[in-house]
Amino acid sequence: MKAIIIMDDVFTHRVYPDYLIKELKEDIEFVSKPLTNDELLKNLDILSEVDFIFSGWGGPKFEKDVLDAAPNLKMVFYGAGTIKNIVTNTFWEKGIRITTANAANAIAVSEYTLAAIIFGLKNALTMNQQLNDTKTYPEPGKRNIRGAFKVKIGLISLGAIARELLKLFENFDFEVIAYDPFITQEEADRLGVVLVDLDTLFKESDVVSLHTPLLDSTRGMIRKKHFLSMKGNTTFINTARGAVVNEEEMIEALRERKDISAYLDVVYPEPPKKSSPLYEMKNVFLTPHIAGSEGNEVTRMGDLMVKEFKAYLAGEKLKYEVNKEDYERMA
């Protein structure tokens, strides 16, 4: 069996370090050193005998020319998150399988989200601004801090990240409500969440955390009215996609409701325009799309793909394989 690694060379040895390569070589032969996508496109013939492609950020888009050059390709192991921008109809038509490290990436995003939830419930953003402005500590009892006990957390969409987050919530006394039109009542009961409509979620939650994939049907779905309906001194978190929120309306709402803290790891466009008010707004905590795997965290994704490969060889069901139906709902 033959394989190749194709991805951005900045990440290759971080996602697939030597110890993982050594483990893979116990079962497969690599036809070349790891290649970048540009290197591959200059030498598509190298795919002629390849059975498996290991990839990640900066990997190839599986269009007809690439797939025609790889007649033996059986499976792609994608050591990154969403496959939305790399898979094509031709890929599905050829019956090639793919598994993704989206679940491993979800761990990092869920940890970032939990940190933002705790900071939000501690009113940390406002406390920091007040401290910087006044150079004094606010008096106890006048800090508008809810605290992380017996509060209501609203999750918008219950995909991989939200489900990882629910595992982390087991250490907290949170009531969790959720909006997800694809989830059955039976599934919600199993997850321990109460399903509500979107308007109710915003009105009742102490923290709202957005995890919705960007689809035509979800673009701009979070509107000004949702923010204005939130309770006082509440928190909004977005680690999903910036375009799910109507950003202009969000900015208007956050200007009116300075008691709402917004933790935004994603915006639209990215980065925001230099003239964007988001840079200056005191109730906005802006980070440059870092919630996903960074640093040592990226190796977790490669490790997961090696585990999936071992399961494939053993004829076992792959935990993280994506079929066409799953793909059409992905961000």
Automatic annotation (TrEMBL):
Family of the protein in this entry: Belongs to the D-isomer specific 2-hydroxyacid dehydrogenase family.
One of the record's GO molecular function terms: oxidoreductase activity, acting on the CH-OH group of donors, NAD or NADP as acceptor
Keywords assigned by UniProt, alphabetized: NAD, Oxidoreductase
UniProt key word Oxidoreductase: yes
SUPFAM superfamilies: Formate/glycerate dehydrogenase catalytic domain-like, NAD(P)-binding Rossmann-fold domains
Domain D-isomer specific 2-hydroxyacid dehydrogenase NAD-binding: 116-291
Annotated ranges, domain D-isomer specific 2-hydroxyacid dehydrogenase catalytic: 13-323
PANTHER family given in the database record: D-ISOMER SPECIFIC 2-HYDROXYACID DEHYDROGENASE FAMILY PROTEIN (AFU_ORTHOLOGUE AFUA_6G10090) (PTHR42789:SF1)
Protein name: Phosphoglycerate dehydrogenase
Acyltransferase among keywords: no
Stored InterPro entries: D-2-hydroxyacid_DH (IPR050857), D-isomer_2_OHA_DH_cat_dom (IPR006139), D-isomer_DH_NAD-bd (IPR006140), NAD(P)-bd_dom_sf (IPR036291)
